[in-house]
Amino acid sequence: MRLNQLEYFMKVVECGSITKAAQELYLSQPSLTKAISSLEAEYDLKLFNRTARGLSLTPKGRDFLEYAKSVVESSQALDRTFGSKQNNFSIQRLAIASQQFDFIYDILLLLYKENSDQLLQIDLKENDRGEIMEMVEECKADIGILVLSEKDSKSFQSELKNKNLDMYRLDRSSVYVSMGPKSDLYDQKEVGVEEAEKYLHVSLDTDQTMRREMRYKKGWEDGVNHEHLIFCNTVGVCRKFLEETEALLLTPKWVLGLFEGTTIRSVPLTKDGKPYPEVNNLVWIKRANEVFRPMEIRFMELLEDRFRCKESDS
């Protein structure tokens, strides 16, 4: 299949006639007929019903037309953007896949302010961990940001290797308990794992594998009531449950800022009377051996600077 064959096909559809389409394309009728026949033979389908009154698209021909339009329009967009040596048109692009964190939006705002005189395309997809890996692997995002716990670190790194992805650590965090005013624990300065296990537990941004582990492996995560568990994929839904029920959310520190300005409180989780260990790692991933574009480089500079500043403050 060549692009001009699709253009010929679309012109025949537009004109409703091989003869008229050939005239507008400045082609001989036999040449155009051969081009259409070659297209039908290549895909083993019939594009047109041929009658004495002219041509009409078959059902598969109508479907084929939609795909043909998409291919031709994409080609035209490439030509408009990159086809002219005099064309200085340029878009700064950034595609991020991330779990929901409180620092992402500030960094994107900084990027905008630094590049407000340029055309920007910033795509932020907030997904669970499994979807983030898939998006980076499939080139739907160039950088992935997610939380990796100590308990699943080994299996996760093996999966990254299979997908040809590189991983880098940004920060570590202990565990915090977030709750709303209807919680019995609301006024406490800390919550022990034994206390937390008595309540409904809300889990945010967990992928399918982790959901299964949390649901069926008791003791997989301290403080979680495995028989009283609800999974949420947005902060808005999670916040609603925290505000309106006695539910608890166990979370790393990078999510706490999402609850600023609400009635939700967050306090440290403890175990045996001591602060809970730093079991959560904030990491970022990329495709191996792939060189970043300028916007991606600047995003990573701002991201890493943020956590270097946090370390200096602590």
Strand content: 15-25%
Please identify which CATH superfamily of the largest domain we are dealing with.
Periplasmic binding protein-like II
Q: Largest sheet, if any?
A: 7 strands, mixed
Regarding CATH, which class of the largest domain?
A: Alpha Beta
Shape: elongated
CATH topology of the largest domain, what is it called? D-Maltodextrin-Binding Protein, domain 2
Helical run tally: 11
**Tally of discrete structural domains:** 3
Structural class category: alpha/beta
User: What is the β-strand count?
Assistant: 14
Q: What is the share of helical residues?
A: 40-55%
CATH architecture of the largest domain: 3-Layer(aba) Sandwich
Compute the separation of the termini in Å: 62 Å
Rg over CA atoms, rounded to whole Å, is 28 Å
Low-confidence stretches: none
